[in-house]
Write a structure and sequence with these properties.
Blueprint: E1 3-9, H1 16-26, E2 31-36, H2 43-50, E3 54-56, H3 63-76, E4 81-84, H4 96-105, E5 110-114, H5 125-141, E6 153-156, H6 160-165, H7 173-183, E7 187-191, H8 206-226
Parallel strand pairs: 1-2, 1-4, 2-3, 5-7
Antiparallel strand pairs: 4-6, 5-6
Helix pairs in contact: 5-7, 5-8, 7-8
Family: Belongs to the glycosyltransferase 2 family.
Domain Glycosyltransferase 2-like: 6-162
Organism: Kribbibacterium absianum
Length: 227
């Protein structure tokens, strides 16, 4: 399979080089596209200095728009699959080959690197939210996904058009439920671990995390009610 790793990066000057070095060393067969999402720091300069394949968004457009730009690139350049890969160092590139193998062997359309496939969830706010979203996806689609909030997901080419053209499809858990329902997408998970963020701070503060979980749950329910 010809796989593209899409690496959204917004103000990731402290972690981008380490992430790229790790990714290129572990997966030399995987092409990489960095989406510099209107960063105000030296992220763009780091991409230029190191010769990273990258797109510069004119302003900070957000994860959905950045990922959509990456998917359009993958669609136009003949990639068989695209994997969402964080720039902050949390994702381990060693799992990408296992994800690609699962996609090929199991004829999967979406493969998720799951933190909970072989272990129990914790009891933090994020873990509780993840369990709630997992339950809603199972209730509305019949599909059990242990880690719908994992940001490390691989998508097969047949779903590229949905991301490239659709206004309501982004790299989020509610989109997984939509794709299962409207495209009969087959979802697989592979067991994975993730590191703590290498540098910087997550935008998902407690208040934002609650808003994110609530919005995601409502999106899943509303889509099923009004499909």
């Amino acid at each position: 399979m010809k796989v593209l790793a899409i690496v959204p990066a917004y103000n990731e000057e402290e972690s981008l080089e380490r992430t790229m070095t790790s990714l290129q060393a572990a997966c030399p067969q995987v092409d990489v596209l960095v989406i510099n999402d209107g960063s105000r720091d030296a992220t763009g300069e780091i991409c230029d200095r190191n010769g990273y394949n990258h797109l510069d968004m004119p302003i900070n457009c957000g994860l959905t728009a950045g990922f959509q730009a990456g998917i359009k690139y993958a669609l136009r350049n003949g990639y068989d699959a695209a994997v969402q890969f964080d720039a902050d160092g949390q994702h381990l590139p060693e799992y990408i080959p296992a994800m690609a193998k699962a996609m090929e062997d199991e004829d999967a359309d979406i493969v998720i690197a799951s933190r909970f496939l072989e272990g129990d969830r914790g009891h933090s706010l994020r873990h509780v939210g993840n369990a709630l979203i997992s339950g809603l996806i199972r209730l509305t689609t019949g599909v059990r996904i242990t880690d719908p909030t994992s940001g490390m997901r691989m998508y097969r080419r047949n779903l590229f058009e949905d991301f490239a053209r659709g206004f309501d499809i982004g790299p989020e858990p509610d989109s997984i439920a939509i794709l299962i329902t409207q495209d009969n997408a087959r979802v697989m998970e592979v067991p994975a671990q993730m590191r703590d963020r290498a540098a910087g701070e997550s935008y998902l503060k407690p208040a934002r995390a609650i808003q994110y979980m609530a919005r995601t749950c409502l999106n899943i329910l509303f889509f099923q009610w009004f499909k």
